[in-house]
Amino acid sequence: MIIASIDIGTNTVLLTVAEWDGKIARVLRDEARITRLGQGLNRDPNFLPEAQERALDVLKDYKKIADSLGASKILAVGTAAFRKAGNANAFVQRVKQEAGIDIRIISGEEEARLSYLSAAHDFGDSENLYVLDIGGGSTEVITKSAAVSMDLGAVVLSESIVTHDPPTDDELAAMEREIHRAIVGANLVSALAAPLGVAPKATFVGLAGSVTTLSAIQQALTVWDGAKVQGSTLTLPQIDDMIALFRKTTTAEKSKIPGMVKGREDTILAGTLILKAVMEAVHVTQVTVSDRGLRFGLIYESNS
Fold it and tell me: Which of 45, 84, 196, 218 has a Cα-to-Cα distance from 39 of 20 to 30 A?
């Protein structure tokens, strides 16, 4: 069965078209396009018209790609931005009418479950698997038996605090305070049952664009190579070095860093700060990077 899976996030719209036999997904096409659908949601309760147009154009193109590859099923989900926008249902109807794609708005808990399913399929399902999914509007930390969804995302954090380029020391401190507030408010360590530092064989997996971009930068990839990103690792000292680099460089300067994914220059600092803070909160010093995520979870739970 050929399945097209679409993850519509606050920042990025992701497409995977894969041949799925119930055990192995053979990827036929993988796309990631930044539309910033959640632009301005920290100030305006609705999707902005220009943001809707950007996302709709990409979805129309994704429908053509899926059809051209013979997809018999298109699974599309909307995450944090859809949960927040007052006009989300109207946009869903418009996408159905104009692009022929049915979008299902999922809860933070469902988002976490699908992200975990993806990581468990690729890295092994166990009590020692911990998954971090940093999105544009929310962040999830998931284990086999628990999940925490925080109202904390790289795009929303950047847009709500940063007005200078590069960010000032005060803006950096404000982002760190907001991240700390979210982690404490979610009671993260207690919710996950145990601090990871005591787990002898804990595997901490990071998903989504901020983490994969950091891997690409660490490897200085001038051309995206998902095979090199999948399963790569990042350590806290490497993450600290990148925070030091991002905090002193402008958006234009960041765009020239080898491995930087176009469109993430203005949110990468916030995403990296979230990654570091969560790792420190759960006492891990290394993260394993996954190039996959929620969209693969949708495929893995489908009947072949």
Answer: 218
Residues 109 and 281: beta-carbon distance below 8 Å: no
pTM for this entry: 0.85
Instruction: Decide: 294 and 79 in contact? Cβ < 8 Å.
Output: yes
Note whether 255 and 112 are within 8 A (CB): no
Length reported for the chain? 304
Other beta carbons less than 10 A from residue 297's beta carbon: 27
Cα–Cα distance between 134 and 262 in angstroms, integer?
A: 18
Q: What is the pLDDT of residues 143-176, one digit of tens each?
A: 888 888 888 889 889 989 999 999 999 999 999 9
Q: Tokens representing 140?
A: 């999830």
Tokens of 296: 């693969």
User: Under DSSP, is residue 173 helix (H, G, I), strand (E, B) or coil?
Assistant: helix
Question: How far does CA 83 lie from the centroid of its chain?
Answer: 15
- Residue where the block lists tokens 């990409």: 58
CA dihedral (172, 244, 225, 153) in degrees, to 10, reads: -10
Q: Does 166 sit behind a cis peptide bond, omega within 30 degrees of 0 on the bond before it?
A: yes
Return the SS3 of 228.
helix
The answer to whether the CB of 47 falls within 8 A of the CB of 119 is: no
